[in-house]
Amino acid sequence: MRTLITVIFAAAVASPLFAQSNEISILAGSTSVGSSEGIEFDNASAVELAYNRFWTNLISTELSGTRSSHDGSLRFGDQQLIDLGSLDLTTIGATLQFHFINSGSLDVYAGPGIAYVSAGDLKSNDLAAAGITSVDIDTQTSWLVNAGGAFKFGHGVAIGVDGKYVHYEPDSSSAGGDVVALKLDPLTVGLTLKFHF
After folding, report:
1. DSSP notation for 26-82
2. For the segment 112-152, what is each residue's pLDDT rounded down to a tens digit?
3. Residue 109: how many CA atoms within 13 Å on its side-chain side?
4. What is the count of structural domains for the chain?
5. Spans of the chain, pLDDT less than 70
6. Cβ partners under 8 Å of residue 93, min gap 6
7. What is the full DSSP assignment across 127-171?
8. How far is the CA of 94 from the CAs of 34, 106, 146, 152, in angstroms?
């Protein structure tokens, strides 16, 4: 991860050497998260706002913020035992993108990055009835991978598809309760509207 941070910083320092441009994008899509030990979370709508700085025609760095909210439950087979409330995820990502095709009307890219992921506490009437005020989920800094493509319409506007996978496996705990490891690993895929300037 330190190597990735160094590469992103080096690209920023070297920026005066290259022709530069900028891009703002808005994503509307879906985020899916993993389940563990009978704890399941539904897929949820996701929104993302991102700023991308192009240092060359082939290399850019993106800063993004993604939000999603997932209904959770403790299940046995197909039977819901306890409603866990909503898992509210916020992901701040920094990605180094390599644009393998970026000419004419097509832009195809992929790259690694780092992510800061936070989750709100789980609260529900079922948890309260079981004597659990809330379930705390750890914040983590981890890695991500990103890939996508866009079709350019001219006048700096493009429409595309973007996907991000974030490695996020936090511990969860309640007051006086056991620590439960979660394997959430959110995957966000959606349509993007991009404005290049």
Report:
1. EEEEEEE---BTTEEE--EEEEEEEEEEESSSSEEEEEEEEEEEEEEEEEETTEEEE
2. 999 999 999 999 999 999 889 999 999 999 999 999 999 99
3. 29
4. 1
5. 1-19, 176
6. 62, 63, 64, 65, 66, 113, 114, 115, 116, 144, 146, 164, 166
7. HHHTT---BEE--EEEEEEEEEEEEEEETTEEEEEEEEEE----E
8. 22, 23, 10, 23
Domain of 114: which CATH number? 2.40.160.20
Please count the other Cβ atoms lying within 10 Å of the Cβ belonging to residue 121: 16
Q: In terms of residue numbers, what domain contains 106?
A: 2-196
The pLDDT, as a whole number, for residue 18 is 55
Contacts of 112 (CB under 8 A, 6+ apart): 4, 95, 96, 143, 144, 145, 146
Give the separation between CA 102 and CA 89, rounded to whole angstroms.
Answer: 32
User: What would the two tokens of residue 189 be?
Assistant: 């895929």
β-sheet bridge partners, residue 171: 181
Report the C-alpha gap between 77 and 39 in whole angstroms. Answer: 11
| pTM, entire model | 0.85
Q: Which residue has the tokens 């991500």?
A: 144
Residue owning tokens 């990735």: 4
Tokens 């700023």: give the residue: 51
> Sign of the C-alpha dihedral, residues 160, 52, 66, 166?
positive
Give the H/E segment covering residue 7.
helix 2-13
